[in-house]
Amino acid sequence: MPFLGQDWRSPGDQWVRTKEGWERLKLWRIKVFENLNESILARLIRLAVLNFEGENGNDQYTHQPRIHFIKTLSRERKVVTTLSESFILLDMTGAVKDIRRFNYVKKILHVLLSKSLVNMSGTSQKYIFSILDEMVNQVVKTKNNTKAMSDLLDCATNSLNDGRYSHIGCTTLWNKHFQAVQRMKNKLNGCKTFMRKEDGKPTISDLPEDCIRCILERLADHKDVFHTGMTKSSIFHITESQLIWKHMSFFHFTDRQLLTFVPDQLGVDEDFINWKHIYRKCFLRYGRKEIYADTLAICLHCDNIFWKSIGHPCISKEEPAARILQPEAFLKLFHF
Known about the structure:
FBX25/32; F-box-like_dom_sf; 15 helices; disordered N terminus; three-stranded antiparallel beta sheet; globular; FBXO25_32; nucleus; four-stranded antiparallel beta sheet; ubl conjugation pathway; alpha+beta
């Protein structure tokens, strides 16, 4: 049924009633496509791409999720970009299926669950837990990021316990969140990892030593370096060398941060510097560097928020320019 707002300048919007309550029709249509079976969705996309190629002769058509961020309001424009709307239009549910964007979405949910869950609307809460459920399904399917997913579910449980009597919304919805998180934990606990069978395909140990070193030195958590070294003696030799810890120190910390602990050893030959010790000192003081394979960005010309790896159709004819948005900076745009 059409809904007409009180402001005469706004024609209103169409709403549809679902099991979870009233939702905007244009957003509900997007959710319908997100919940389609993967095989059906793949077939629809394949048919659409073939149709597009037949009409335009172009085989590089790609869907580009984006949202126009409105900085200020005016008397003529009474539109506010909401967080729940951005989750749908930026396809956060689909983003967790991409290994490059998984950690970025995980960080956004971790910040919201730990700091802002009790102050969020019921609609935004439902979107967060639906994304959380899709993340669990992806982890169970790929057997990746199980520890990180378990920590995120523990964070959700703690936030639900802390906000039991101070949250926004009804108690029934809050209890549904409890049940959903418990169901996700049971699903994650039932996920078992098996040793890879000999299939003749190359493994990380088959790569040259320089390639293995380049991969390990860019890991966000140094514990993963230790765990990788425990898998094979040849990789253990790489993880214990001073060269990899030197590269990790320069990759994760700035020169100014390194000079805090290096100046006493400037007169010493560089080969005799204990880079593993310096990395440990820098890590204890400055913490972990946040590394994401793909991030959100905001265009400086048209104010569209988009995924950097996918891009967006900009209306400006000038050279594209965008500002990278860290998870905290993205949430700050919506006052979280």
